[in-house]
Amino acid sequence: MTTQEQQGLQITGEMKPGYDAILSADAIEFLSELVHEFAPALKQLLKDRDRRQSEIDNGQLPDFLAETRDIRESHWKIAGIPTDLQDRRVEITGPVERKMVINAMNANVKVFMADFEDAQSPTWDGVVEGQANLRDANLGTIEYTHPETGKHYRLKDQPAMLLARVRGLHLPEKHILYKGEAIPGCLMDFALYFFHNLGIRQAKGSGMYFYLPKLQSYKEAAWWSKVFHFAEQRFKVPTGTIKATVLIETLPAVFEMDEILFALREHIVALNCGRWDYIFSYIKTLRRHADRVLPDRQVVTMDQPFLDAYSRLLIRTCHKRGAMAMGGMAAFIPAKDPQENEKVLARVTADKDREARNGHDGTWVAHPGLADTAMTVFNHYLGNRPNQLHVLRDEDAPISASLLLQPSDGVRTEQGMRTNIRVALQYIEAWISGNGCVPIYGLMEDAATAEISRTSIWQWIQNQKTLDNGQVVTKALFRQMLAEEAQVVRSELGESRWQAGRFEKAITILDQITTDDELVEFLTLPGYQALD
Ligand SMILES: CC(=O)SCCNC(=O)CCNC(=O)[C@H](O)C(C)(C)COP(=O)(O)OP(=O)(O)OC[C@H]1O[C@@H](n2cnc3c(N)ncnc32)[C@H](O)[C@@H]1OP(=O)(O)O
Ligand SMILES: O=CC(=O)O
Ligand SMILES: [Mg+2]
């Protein structure tokens, strides 16, 4: 490598036709500036996560911070919410694949959250073509013809507003190197989306809107604030051109919501209850706390006290500061059978009703077939208002740390463990094959929901939990069940699908991350080594 290459970025991914428009010299120069300026501090933030986790492993419990009491107790508000982000009552989410982008923006929703994180397996082609898809979507020119059916897709008049969710801070992009090292994936997603869409969105009188996933502390939010200021100054656009919604989907972050809003006050418009990662984070953060091991995944629903408290505190905190409080995802997807589908819609209605009643300003759906259902519920609660910022939830003060950490009741069943194995196995296989979101047993499974499945088993092994049938969960029991359940999956999917897939590799990864005594931080980290 030449000295010049060492100072700049080296692209090792294949440059297919059209990629040079996305990875243009000017776009790469901007990305290189961001990496040079911000990657070192990001490394330190990731080390801080490890240090904090060691303290919790050694017996401390997460709590509200003494050092930031002033921020929690003083009066201030976020800078404001642009008019075109005031009404977000239903948002659809999905990967940045071309056909899905068009379908999502045509759904009966206000917003499409285009996802480089939980729903997207970050293949090189996926992330570069995803940027082209989002640019074309913002331009309004995006089209797609299905190669087999010939069905043509284009945007309707007044499609949904596009928000981009960049990758989490932990995920590298190995096809672009800086001084020989993989760059942070989040900076690639942010830089390219910002560079290619700023002019398009400004011409529409709009701004640059992002979702930020998996933050664990206000210091990470402050890092994003610096990135946003840098980008705005570099392109000479007003402060606040960028607006962000932060997912509160880690247990440490729930104790720092005021601080996160404050750190990003010039750029933030909302927090979101990312419930699936939050459950995963509860398991991960409290991994060494034997009294807080979760039961079967199926019984950890939003009426568990620790989840209900999280939703209510998020609404109260946001509305006090003038920010919106977005709800989360019911993982159900429409069923083909009409009677079964009635049940799905009833469950989605109940879930959305709880959120709207609590005071959330909007919610998520995973599939266009659920948009009308969620819309009906939120229309009912919102009436003529665009949101529920007036709901202050004063009756909730204070929500204590012990409520946010409350252990959950519920069974641990053999069936629950076997289902977790089959789901984790199929999801890992899909992810390392380049598909980040799949339907499995009637539910949407993505990088957040699958994490719950695999960490539950790890946690039960580490804490030698007893199943409802009297068996103690051990590594040997897991390995026996993994072998059996792999055969169940093989017969469910058929031999040709099994042979064409990457199931043997997925079995190896699942075995390794479940039996390792150290909890692997994210399944997507070993997964990424197996990708491409
Ligand atoms: C925990 C979290 O982070 S949640 C956020 C991340 N997760 C997500 O974004 C989930 C997104 N959802 C999906 O990817 C899909 O709904 C899946 C994979 C779960 C199911 O997809 P499919 O099996 O294709 O569903 P199905 O066959 O019913 O789809 C019917 C049509 O709806 C489209 N569709 C389904 N979900 C979506 C979506 N989220 N966005 C856009 N279009 C969609 C399909 O592309 C298909 O279109 P077509 O008829 O033109 O071919
Ligand atoms: O990103 C959303 C979640 O639930 O996780
Ligand atoms: Mg998530």
TrEMBL record:
Keywords, A to Z, come to:
Acyltransferase, Glyoxylate bypass, Transferase, Tricarboxylic acid cycle
Q: What class of enzyme is it?
A: transferase
Recorded hits in Pfam families, A to Z, give: MS_C, MS_N, MS_TIM-barrel
- GO MF terms, alphabetically ordered: malate synthase activity
Name the family.
Belongs to the malate synthase family.
Give residue ranges for domain Malate synthase N-terminal: 8-68
Taking every annotated instance into account, which residue ranges of this chain make up the domain Malate synthase TIM barrel? 162-406
Q: Which PANTHER family match?
A: MALATE SYNTHASE (PTHR42902), MALATE SYNTHASE 1-RELATED (PTHR42902:SF1)
* Enzyme Commission numbers on file: 2.3.3.9
Protein name as annotated: malate synthase
Q: What reaction gets catalysed by this protein?
A: glyoxylate + acetyl-CoA + H2O = (S)-malate + CoA + H(+)
Using the record's annotation, list all stretches that form the Malate synthase C-terminal domain.
412-531
Asked whether the UniProt record includes Transferase among its keywords, one would answer yes
